[in-house]
Amino acid sequence: MPSVVRSLLLLALAALSASASPHDLHDHDHAAPRALPGRWYHHEDHPAYALFRRGDTDGATYPAVGSPEWSAGYPDTDVTKGTPQAWIDALNAAVKAGKVPNIPVATSTGGNPTYPQGFDPNGPEVCSATYKCRNKEDLWDAPDGVFGSSFDDGPLPTSMPLYEFLKQNNVITTHFMIGSNILWNADAFTYAFETLESDIAVHTWTHPYMTTLSNEQVIGELGWTMELIHNSTGGRLPKYWRPPYGDSDERVRAIAKEVFGLTTVIWNQDTEDWSIGESTGTTRPKVDASLKEWITGPKSPGLIILEHELTNNTVGAFMQAFPLIAQNGWKFESVARLDGGSVYQNSDDDTDDVTPQAVGVFAAASPSPPASDASSTASSSSNSKPTGTGTVTSGSSSPVSTGSTANPSATGAAQDHKNGAMSRFGSPMSWHSAALATSLSVLAAAFALS
Ligand SMILES: [Zn+2]
């Protein structure tokens, strides 16, 4: 129930109880009763409501989720097509203000994206999350004793058993959703948002290695996913995003923050659950063992385990381990709620009031962005390290050589699924190729129809 309505009902009940006060039992005739009249507020169809109505949407009218009108107008795989000028303007303003580091676009080489000679992925200028360089404003750890829960790559048909399990257990989690998957699984999306009241966050439009994209492509990947979520949730703007493969750097991170107001979320443990069933992937028993080890292990820092709503095995491993979380004294918490603040940029959660706000105007609306309140470890002043005024990078090809590459395996125990996807299987798409390929082919068919 919207909080406004709830408040009004409470007030109405108070008024009713006041009018039924012991005064009615007296027969003396001093002052007139001071109880409020029975109905002192306007009905909800009164014009006054139109002036102030926010409730659980921003008051705008959006096409029904799943309708042709709702799914029209989004890109297929070329996310730079039809980019709204406002996003480009916001990007240019951020670049001009020196808030987007002018570092090279990384190159895909069949392994981890690489940077030209002279650009250290673990140095402060680049600080690539792929190489486990931690920007203090990013979210890597949960607070001590907290199990920070999230699932990537949904919504998919395989999401539904997970959603029903979450519902049965009455817990809320964060879903880092792929924009194109939302288009093709509208029912699952609606279930997650409306029935579960789970927290919706951004996992890009086509699941690329973000550091290998131009500034405009980064804008499209984030912007279109933001736009679809915004238009499917009564106007809510996600506050968190997780880069696919955990691949982000200072440039990508800055664009996400300065243009879209997004805080980057990574993880501190990874079962590689996505690779169960792949020829050289992990196995379900190994995933189960890892989950058990971490959940029965130390509580500092708290856990943020990379998990996927991708297959019956990834979902099943979580469901099997779920009872252990409470049994071992963890507090289960949705990742988007770890900082105790709002889940969305313009709304507390899935049911609270929404302040109208468009996608991609963060830079213009907030010349001095508020300090990130997302990270439990956040303390530094700025996440961007201007290295020059720079210009907007054009196109997808940036002539960078395959230069220095640090070995990420030497810097962190947790393996992220990019390592497997790229180096073990040779194809960056193999991690969830079936799911995404299905989504994209259906997407392409629909665009041909519309
Ligand atoms: Zn993913």
UniProtKB/TrEMBL annotation:
One Gene Ontology cellular component: side of membrane
Cofactor(s) of this protein: Co(2+)
Renumbered residue ranges of the record's region Disordered: 363-421
Topological category with respect to the lipid bilayer: Lipid-anchor; GPI-anchor
Biased composition (Low complexity): 363-405
UniProt record, GO biological process: cell wall organization; chitin catabolic process; fungal-type cell wall biogenesis; polysaccharide catabolic process
Pfam families to which the protein is assigned, alphabetical: Polysacc_deac_1
Signal sequence interval, chain numbering: 1-20
EC code: 3.5.1.41
Major localization listed first in the record, in broad terms: membrane
Localisation: Cell membrane
Catalytic activity: [(1->4)-N-acetyl-beta-D-glucosaminyl](n) + n H2O = chitosan + n acetate
Keyword entries, A-Z: Carbohydrate metabolism, Cell membrane, Cell wall biogenesis/degradation, Chitin degradation, Cobalt, Glycoprotein, GPI-anchor, Lipoprotein, Membrane, Polysaccharide degradation, Signal
GO molecular function: chitin deacetylase activity
Name the UniProt record assigns to this protein: chitin deacetylase
Source organism per UniProt: Polyporus arcularius HHB13444
